Amino acid sequence: MRGLRASSLLLCGVVLIQLLAVQIDAQRPKTQWKTLSGFSPRVIARGGFSGLFPDSSLDAYNFAMQTSVLDAVLWCDLQLTKDGAGICFPDLTMSNASNVESVYPKGQSTYPVNGVPTPGWFTIDLSLRALTNVSLIRGILSRSDKFDGNAYTISTVQTVNKEMKPQGFWLNVQHDAFYAQHNLSMSNFLISVTKTVIVDFISSPEVNFFRKIAGRFGREGPSFVFRFLEKEQFEPTTNRTYGSILGNLTFVKTFASGILVPKSYVLPLDDKQYLLPSTSLVQDAHKAGLEVFVSGFANDVDIAHDYSFDPVSEYLSFMDNGNFSVDGVLSDFPITASASVECFSHVARNATKQVDFLVISKNGASGDYPGCTNLAYEKAINDGADVIDCSVQMSSDGKPFCSSSIDLGNTTMVAQSPLRNRSTSVPEISSVNGIYTFTLTWPEIQTLTPAISNPYSRRFNMFRNPNERNSGKLLSLSEFLNLAKNSTTLSGVLISVENAAYLREKQGLDVVKAVLDALTETGYSNRTTTKVMIQSTNSSVLVDFKKQSQYETVYKVEETIRDILDSAIEDIKKFASAVVIGKSSVFPVVDGFVTGQTNVVERLQKSQLPVYVELFQNEFVSQPFDFFSDATVEINSYVTGPGINGTITEFPFTAARYRRNRCLASKETLSYMAPVQPGGLLEVVSPGSLPPAEAPNPVFTDADVTEPPLPPVTAKAPTPTPGTPSTTAPAPSGQTQLTLSLLLSVFAMVLASLLLM
């Protein structure tokens, strides 16, 4: 079977996790957990690792076991075939998670399910033999379809047990009444299968099902778990809503030892997707002697805004909140659940760092607040950033301030303000009109309302912290420096300078001098405790700073590169003491998959140049599939794989928390804390589904580094509108190869001076 062959590939270590890493059952002492048993919460893998591979495929089950805690429980949604075989398949109807429609195009039927006529391809219409022609595919469209061509077969309960030999096995019976209507007995199947298969848990949302199987398994039989559906839905046996049954847990205790509930039963949300106060359900259930398992965990779905798109934070809110702990979590991504239990639970915010790298903010905590505002910077500091950053822009009256963009339309609500008519064309900066910082005075800019960045709103409808989307105020560079100076936890600041040549030549604004003056005025020129880093994509800017100060300089490589020449590294070392590169210059990505690893980090570090990598974000759509929609997995892979020296992130909390996780102190690499194997996931994709090859990224050369000096500051012409086309051209970055433009500019200036003589 294709699935078994792919499973063998996983076990042979050709895919992304180092599968031979030693697994240690690092179970926490009983006293630390507020579960019913006192032991750590169970990790239950729904359909295996169904967030990556097709639900209930052998590869999904195999990968779940290889990347989870040792006692992870495999979940099987039990369905019955026409001839009474028990299979693991996620739903009663098959068209959503298999290719049954193309195999049996005339096989659609309509049956009443809980009283509702439901069309589809049902398992009860096909024998087990007929199902051998059907393959499993993804059931959620946002997930990769690259594994759909792997011809994963549908497995029986016995096959899953035989091939996986799980430490825990959970059978979920969702539609016992439906099968009974078609003369198929779930209870008889379960009695029979448990003679050869150890089943640890059986769940169902139907009370009558538990009445039928009560007393038929003996003392050593499986635990019964009553599954609650949405509160307004009716339970078919009692004809009561699940919400009303929730109020009588002593009744549930008469036939079950645990309950399985949606997340909202424990931590409800308001209509804006923010957390409401937790309910007392877990404590009430524990008092009644019931374990509480929670369903609905997946890294690639919207979660409460309170979690900042971080799935680990969500898990911890259910298991390590100081008040209660659920007894288990049902997850599509068991690696994240496992790491949450074993690595991040009961870890204090001031715990010792287990790994050393810089956490550098990107416009402050700009994933939670509008970037470069007081609130974004304050949160970055509180979240554990080592270095906060300021992208310096200049106002028309020469005030340096922090803003992520020179176009205020990208960072503020200026388009809805009285200043909206100040839009101008500046082709040297952008092909579209904008309201640029150098066209407004600092007092005018201070009146603007900041706007949070939403990089994934249009394509994915994902929005950051809507309640705070316009909160905070923009800071001048001096205010930013004073804020950082008053912090007792920061080790440094990073000041980013761009467009310096244009500002000098076209606007008469010297951003280099403005930055140096602000640093002197705020006392940084004499400070030894707070490191100052100046970053730019222009070597000319860093050379200028190097001549006038002793501050550390950081060169940013804009392009995605596959290698860097020795000569380019030697040139960089003349003016910079560290380098910033993009994530794809470390792990190249094609069509959402990591294709390999470059040697750029290694080459720079061998030349004593620390490497900081950007841009780390928590949104799962920002990460290749290789990182399992988990920002922590991504950070771990960059830090413990190529060994970068720092992360530049819009969510500093996630990176800072990662450094404290206890699993990094383990002498053995735990499977759920192992770096991905670059390009390994593509090894499991069938050849026909592989993404097309792309042209290789360029090699960075010394020609990309070299550029002419910054031009002198010229008096701003009083008449032309900023950005009006002229005979001069901006001093360019060497990285964009515009040296010729500078020569033309100098020639034009000389010619103009001769004409005036």
TrEMBL record:
Its EC number is 3.1.4.46. It is an enzyme of class 3 (hydrolase). One of its GO terms (molecular function) is glycerophosphodiester phosphodiesterase activity. It holds the Pfam family GDPD. InterPro entries: GP_PDE_dom, PLC-like_Pdiesterase_TIM-brl. Residues 693-734 are annotated as: Disordered. Coiled coil: none annotated. Gene3D superfamilies: Phosphatidylinositol (PI) phosphodiesterase. It comes from the Eukaryota. Residues 41-341, 357-659 form the GP-PDE domain. Residues 713-734 have a biased composition (Low complexity). It catalyses: a sn-glycero-3-phosphodiester + H2O = an alcohol + sn-glycerol 3-phosphate + H(+). Belongs to the glycerophosphoryl diester phosphodiesterase family. This is glycerophosphodiester phosphodiesterase.
